[in-house]
Write a structure and sequence with these properties.
Number of helices: 7
CATH topology of the largest domain: Rossmann fold
CATH superfamily of the largest domain: NAD(P)-binding Rossmann-like Domain
CATH architecture of the largest domain: 3-Layer(aba) Sandwich
Shape: globular
Distance between the termini: 32 Å
Number of domains: 2
Strand order of the largest sheet: 1-2-3
C-alpha cells in the first residue's frame, strides 16, 4: 500500500480492513468501479475487486493465489455480468516493447525492490514470501 502511494495512487484501500468495500463504494458514489485489477494474489483482494466492481465492469487477476477465491456464479457472474479475466503470461512478440517501457519508467526504482544474484534464489523466495517486496530481479550468471 505504501508503494502504491509512492507511485502516485490517489487512494489506497486495504482489503483486510473492515469497511473496505464501503470505502470504495463511497469513492464511486455507490456505483462501483468500472474496472478492477489485482496483482497481490490475496483472496480478500480478489473478493474486493469482484464486490466493488459495477455491473458490466471488468475484473482482472494477475496475482496468483495459494487458495481458491470464492466465486458466486449467480451474484458475481450472472447478475453483475462480470467478465473475470486472468493474465498468465504475455505475448512474447511484445517482450522487447514491454522491456523498453519498463526501462524508461520513472517508477522503475519503485517497481523493483531487490536485485540479487541467482545464487541467492532462496533468499529471493523468502523475501517474496514475506510480502515485503515489489519485483525481484535475479541475475542468472551470478
Amino acid at each position: 500500500m505504501e508503494r502504491a502511494q509512492q507511485m502516485g495512487a490517489d487512494t489506497v484501500v486495504n482489503p483486510f480492513e473492515d469497511g473496505a468495500l464501503e470505502q470504495l463504494m463511497d469513492l464511486t458514489n455507490g456505483i462501483g468501479a468500472d474496472a478492477a485489477l489485482d496483482c497481490s494474489g490475496q483472496v480478500k483482494a480478489h473478493r474486493l475487486c469482484i464486490d466493488a466492481t459495477r455491473r458490466g465492469g471488468k475484473v482482472a487477476f494477475i496475482g496468483q493465489c495459494g487458495e481458491e477465491t470464492p466465486l458466486r456464479v449467480s451474484p458475481d457472474r450472472i447478475a453483475k455480468g462480470l467478465p473475470l479475466m486472468r493474465v498468465w503470461h504475455y505475448n512474447l512478440n511484445l517482450f522487447l516493447s514491454l522491456l523498453k517501457v519498463t526501462q524508461k519508467s520513472p517508477l522503475l526504482d519503485l517497481l523493483v525492490s531487490h536485485t540479487l544474484p541467482m545464487s541467492k534464489i532462496q533468499q529471493a523466495i523468502e523475501i517474496s514470501a514475506s510480502q515485503q517486496s515489489a519485483k525481484i530481479i535475479l541475475h542468472p550468471w551470478e
